[in-house]
Design brief:
Length: about 325
C-alpha cells in the first residue's frame, strides 16, 4: 500500500494529537496544545505519513534557514511511530519522510533524538536507521536519570543525608501549587540571572498558559520554611518519566537543606507512579563540557548517565534505507 507524505496543516490538529497520545515514542511536548505555544517563533514544517488514510508516523519539525530541524523549540524530537507498528514499517516511514524532504529541496535534517527513558518501548530501529543513513552525531548531551526499576542503587552520601536531616529538624515541608508567580519572579529568574546570566526558556505567562493547557502534566512544587517559599521545581510528567524542567532555591534553602529535601520528597512521591526520574542534563558548550558540581549533586540522589544524541542527516541518503517489509502476525 502506497504512503501519503505531506506537511502538517491546522486542520490535522485533532488527528495529530490523537496519534501522539497513542504513539510508542512521544510525549505531551509533541501535542499541539504544547507545541503551538511558540508557533509565532518558528516556521512549522512538521510532517505526516498516512497509510489507508490513517496517520502512521509524524515528524514534529520546523524550517530553519535551508534545513529542517526536529524541533528547534523542543528539548527533543524525532520520528514518531505507533505502538504496534513493525520495525520494517518504521524504517519504511523514516525513508518516506526523508525522501519527501529531499524531493522538496531540503538537503539536511537535524534530528534531536528522544531519549530512551521517554519511550514506551525500544527505539532501536531509529538508531539502526541512523547507522544505515551514515548520520553524523554532532552533539551528545548527558542526562542524569534515576531508574526506579534498577537493582543497582547508589548509596546516598552522608552529606546528602545530613542536609535532609537538617531540613526535617527545621520543619521544611513540600506543597504543590497551581501558581508559579513567586517561584518564577523571586527565586528562579534571579537565580538563573546571577549564576548563568540567562532567563528561563519560558516566560511566566507562557508556563502558566502551558500548565492550563496541559493539566496534570506540568506541576509546581515548593519547599516551604516558616510559611516562606525558599525553593521550588517545575515538573513535566510524561507516561514514563518525571522531568525537572526548572529547579532553584534561595540562600535560605541552602542554609536549611530545603532543596535537597524537596528532591528527596519528590523521588519518593513518584517512586510508584513513574519508571524514571529525570534530573536533566549536566552539559555546557553543546555537550562538550560536563558541569562536575551538578553531576556530583545529581548522582548523590542515585541518578546515572543517559545519552541524548543529536544527528545531522543528509536527506539524499534515504536510498540506503532498504528493509524488506512484512506483515506482523
Amino acid at each position: 500500500m502506497s504512503l501519503n507524505v505531506r506537511r502538517y496543516k491546522k486542520e490535522d490538529e485533532n488527528n495529530w494529537n490523537s496519534f501522539i497520545s497513542n504513539a510508542k515514542n512521544a510525549t505531551f511536548l509533541f501535542d499541539r496544545n504544547y507545541m503551538d505555544y511558540h508557533k509565532d517563533k518558528f516556521i512549522d514544517n512538521s510532517i505526516i505519513v498516512e497509510e489507508n488514510d490513517q496517520i502512521v508516523s509524524v515528524l514534529p519539525a520546523n524550517f530553519e534557514n535551508d534545513i529542517v530541524v526536529s524541533h528547534s523549540g523542543l528539548t527533543y524530537g524525532g520520528f514518531v511511530f505507533g505502538v504496534n507498528s513493525s520495525t520494517s514499517s518504521n524504517i519504511k516511514y523514516t525513508k518516506s519522510i526523508l525522501k519527501f524532504l529531499y524531493t522538496n529541496n531540503i538537503p539536511n535534517l537535524i534530528l534531536k533524538s528522544l531519549p530512551d527513558f521517554y519511550s514506551k518501548c525500544s527505539q532501536s530501529e531509529i538508531e539502526y536507521s541512523m547507522f544505515l543513513l551514515e548520520a553524523k552525531t554532532f552533539r551528545v548531551d548527558t542526562a542524569l536519570v534515576l531508574d526506579y526499576s534498577s537493582n543497582l542503587k547508589r548509596k546516598m552520601p552522608k552529606g546528602r543525608k545530613s542536609e535532609i536531616s537538617k531540613a526535617k529538624k527545621v520543619g521544611v515541608i513540600v506543597e504543590e501549587s497551581e501558581n508559579c508567580n513567586y517561584f518564577w519572579n523571586s527565586i528562579l529568574t534571579p537565580n538563573l540571572n546571577s549564576r548563568f546570566n540567562v532567563q528561563p526558556v519560558h516566560t511566566l505567562d507562557e508556563i502558566m498558559s502551558l500548565k492550563k493547557n496541559n493539566p496534570k502534566k506540568i506541576r509546581q512544587f515548593h519547599a516551604i520554611v516558616d510559611n516562606e517559599i525558599v525553593a521550588g521545581t517545575t515538573i513535566f510528567e510524561t507516561d514514563t518519566t518525571v522531568h525537572l524542567q526548572y529547579l532553584a532555591g534561595n540562600e535560605k534553602s541552602r542554609n536549611t537543606g530545603a532543596l535537597d529535601f524537596l528532591f528527596y520528597y519528590l523521588i519518593n512521591y513518584y517512586s510508584e507512579k513513574k519508571d524514571y526520574f529525570d534530573f536533566g542534563i549536566v552539559n555546557e558548550n553543546n555537550g562538550k563540557k560536563v558541569n562536575i558540581g551538578m553531576l556530583k549533586w545529581k548522582e548523590s540522589f542515585g541518578a546515572r548517565f543517559y545519552l541524548h544524541k543529536f544527528y545531522e542527516i543528509n536527506t539524499s541518503n534515504y536510498v540506503t534505507l532498504e528493509v524488506d517489509n512484512y506483515k506482523s502476525k
